[in-house]
Amino acid sequence: MSKFKSEFFNLMVERGFYNQCTNEDGFDTYLYECEKAGKPAVGYLGSDPTGDSLHVGHIVPLMMMRWFQKCGHKPITLVGGATARIGDPSGKDKLRPFLDEETLQNNIKGLKKSFSKFLKFGEGKNDAIMVDNWDWFKDINYLAFLRDIGTCYSVNRMLTMDSVKTRLEREQPMSFLEFNYMLLQGYDFCVLYNKYGCRAQIAGSDQWGNITSGTELGRRRYDVELFGFTSPIITDSNGKKMGKSEGNAVWINEEKLPSYDYYQYFRNIGDAEVGKCLRIYTDLPMDEIRRLESLQDKEINEAKKILAFEATKICRGLEEAQTAQDTAVKTFEMGQAGGDLPSIEKASVDGLSVLDAFLQIGFVASKGEARRLIKQAGLKINDKVVSDENYVLSAADVVDGQVKLSQGKKKHGLIKVA
Cβ atoms within 10 A of the Cβ of 335, count? Predict the structure, then answer.
């Protein structure tokens, strides 16, 4: 039996997106009444344009907004053309570097491209729109802002927020500029409410303090209840935050990362993460997900292939997903990638050092050369960068009876395990 009345809230719980809400019953009722009336609820997701693409770490709230739209609601994507000039202190140890105008505009274009892969933009009643908070902050009067907005905030309460408290506890400097960030984000929420009727902010749990600064401002200044809804931080079985691959971001935009590498990131997800990732990173129905996550042993690889294909299809399109899948099949299952790959055969890879593996397949002339390439991040096992020269292969590295070895981007080989 469903716990909530609204389709969106129930979907978020079932698929593992739900972490915290400022008012469960209130938000659920707001969504349900909108759904019942055929009128879209309005919610927003914000992102500062500090880079020219989002990465896998940003996909969780993006997928939440995707489902929000699928349920008939209207997403607003806000780019912080103004707040990017300051920097969100949440999770940061120091002041963010300032960006010039040309870089900011280029980054905003990149973010629109990232958002567009997951959301439908247009003129329809529940089509997504994109706004820039620079539009309302560029001409704001500082004294008027302090008088009208600053008086709604308690410094005592601001000092208890994690983004502030953590920096102070570590005795790391925090500028007054950064201290203002939560006021600006809170003001964003109220501007979106006044202009578009937006009553919900959807984000990761690290934004909780900034979200509640907006809900509090709405209550104090406009006598309206705004809602905050957050997702958990998604981690793997080792507690490591997902979205990074050996220290390198897994970028959403294709000019930053080839579709094959995007596909392989999900193809190489750990067995324990398959069900979680199918729920969060794909549109597959829950009955199919439950079937796939119940697979055991070697069969789990089939679920990983489906995960990788479906995740890539959303982000890069059907054609790119098919091409990435075909490349993976040729490389791992047919032993070819633009021709036959060099290979060696082993009864087992247990105990085989990474240095010996690359020496035996002929990619290096000596172990010294292998060590040098490892320091330069030039060697990969199953498309993952080798960072430890003392690494020893095991059965866990065997994928479909093979281990893929790569030197650079173009030289690949296989260890075929009997």
Answer: 15
**pLDDT band, very low/low/confident/very high, at 135 (cuts 50, 70, 90):** very high
Q: What is d(CA 153, CA 176) in angstroms, rounded to the nearest whole number?
A: 15
DSSP for 162-223 reads HHHHHHHHTT----HHHHTHHHHHHHHHHHHHHHH---EEEEEGGGHHHHHHHHHHHHHHH-
- What is the DSSP code string of 35-94? HHHT---EEEEEE--SSSS-BGGGHHHHHHHHHHHHTT-EEEEEE-TTGGGT---TT-SS
The dihedrals phi and psi of 417, each to the nearest 5 degrees, come to -100, 120
> What are the beta bridge partners of residue 44?
76, 201
The position carrying tokens 């709230």 is 61
- Neighbouring C-beta atoms of residue 191, cutoff 10 Å: 18
* Contact call for residues 55 and 204 (beta carbons, < 8 A): no
pTM recorded for the entire structure: 0.78
Q: Is 146 helix (H, G, I), strand (E, B) or coil?
A: helix
Among the listed ranges 85-94, 131-140, 282-291, 372-381, which one has the minimum average pLDDT value?
85-94
Cβ neighbors of 382 (< 8 A, separation 6 or more) are 264, 268, 397, 399, 403, 404
What is the arithmetic mean of pLDDT over 375-404?
91
The DSSP H or E segment spanning 363 is none
Alpha carbon distance 311, 335 (integer Å): 25
In 32-66, which positions are buried (b, 16+ CB within 10 angstroms) versus exposed (e)? bebbeeeebbbbbbbbbbbbbbbbbbbbbbbbbbb
The span from the first CA to the last CA of the chain, in angstroms, equals 49
Retrieve residue 337's tokens.
Answer: 């990638």
pLDDT of 153: 81
Contact 221, 184 (CB under 8 A): no
pLDDT at 243: 64
How far is CA 359 from each of CA 230, 365, 396, rounded to the nearest angstrom?
A: 49, 6, 21
**Contact between 134 and 108 (Cβ < 8 Å):** no
Paired residues of 346 in beta bridges? 417
Per-residue tokens: 232: 């958990």
Query: Worst-scoring range by mean pLDDT, 55-69, 90-104, 139-153, 370-384?
Result: 90-104
- Kindly give the residue spans of alpha helices, DSSP state H, lying in 223-366: 259-267, 274-281, 286-293, 300-316, 318-328, 354-360
What is the pLDDT, as a whole number, of residue 127?
98
Number of helices and strands (H, E) in the chain? Answer: 18, 13
